[in-house]
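Record pair follows.
FIRST:
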Amino acid sequence: MSSDAARLTALINRWREDGMVGVRSCDIIPDATNRERTGLSLEHVHFLATTFAKEGFRKRINNEGHDIPVLVRENLTTGHGKVSFEKWKQITADTEGFPPTRISDATPEFFCSLGNGHFSQALNLFRNDSRSIFTGELYSVGKDDNLRQALDEGVSSIVLGCTMPLHDRKFVSEMLNRTHDDVTWSVADDGNVHITTLTGDRKTPQWEALSKVCDAEQLSCLIRSKLGVDYSSVENGYYLIKSKL
């Protein structure tokens, strides 16, 4: 195991709560350290939601499926919890297309995502009956039982304590993306994490590998390129132009 993977494993197991925790996406906001503090890409959130709508939601079974959310249990009495909340509240107010946050000044507890933040907000687009920025269509759960279960019951997540230092949070956030193509995860029933370095070549698509290491703006540009969208030429919204969706 590489030294970075070993440190990542050690930090998660040091700060995690016992067992896996089912967490609903409406209780999750991005941690302020996420993606070099640039936050989330609006385009990637909608790209994931569009994938769920077209291909169906694939829940994680036996270490296969979507990535495991890695979250920090937070509240507004901690400095970093308040910073993360205020930052996300401002972003959702200023940027049309993000799902509105249901967390408020009266919320006693919430979760900040170090990993899989786009995934959680993509789920929130369905929860809030939001419209696609690409097509203008409503995101609807329809008959997707796996998606309904994820919204109603939450997604099994690794939850870390709020006393975890910021420099450790930042390292975990960076490594969850950087090592995506180099390691494999397994999580025991008690929540103990095992991260193993892989050998040999993997066949992850180039754009997907790049998406893991981009900051928010770079990731938005990557998604626009994949969809054949020149956002700078569009004044009235994505849905007026033809994309590859």
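SECOND:
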Amino acid sequence: ARFGKKEESYVPQYLQIWKILHGALVNEFKDLAIIKNALENKHHNSKLGVIRMEASLFVQWWQLFESFCLQYFHTEDQCLLGYTPFTFFASILQGKRELVKQFLYVVDIIHEFETDSDKYAIKLSTALSDLIKRFVEYLELEYGIQISTEFHKVLDTRALQQRVLNYFVEGPYPEESLVLLINAMRDKKERGRWLRDNVNFKTRQEVRGWEVRVYESHTVVVQHLQATSGMQK
């Protein structure tokens, strides 16, 4: 393990790992909010309502969204929360229970939505609104993150970052998950530095192709649903 010098704290590096994860998840929930509003708008204002093709697009988008969220929660539990004080840990777990409960409820409604998209559009939209509300409440808890003092100067953040990445790449969408993580970094220099520090050369060469795949199968869905709903961007 890499231990810090006596006067050095690894808290900033730990917080940076968490910040990137948060940023990626927030980006996904922002897109979810756009989709929710688009479905509502189409149901109320379109003569055809929400058609089956659009429902299929949403389900396609949701599959990566759901996988990424579950990987995030699992990674958080296995890699990050163990360094926090018990009181913070307990409050996060309670908030997560409420969030996951609503998450599973949405999954059930999606199955109904697939069978009759316009009929269940508002039920789904309402459930998504509640999910987003739970997520915001959960984020408010996490923004107060604390780290137990005994870890401030003995935390192996390089190994921790690799553990975090390993959990994501072990999921059903490893390449797409990596793209969602790096998309949380707006600054190109920061992204380049992060990739050099954390992934091998072969992977870095392939990332661009994965970014195109995520754009065409995930990002474009949000853009299409927004554009065809009559919503203002």
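COMMENT: The two ends are 48 Å apart (CA to CA).
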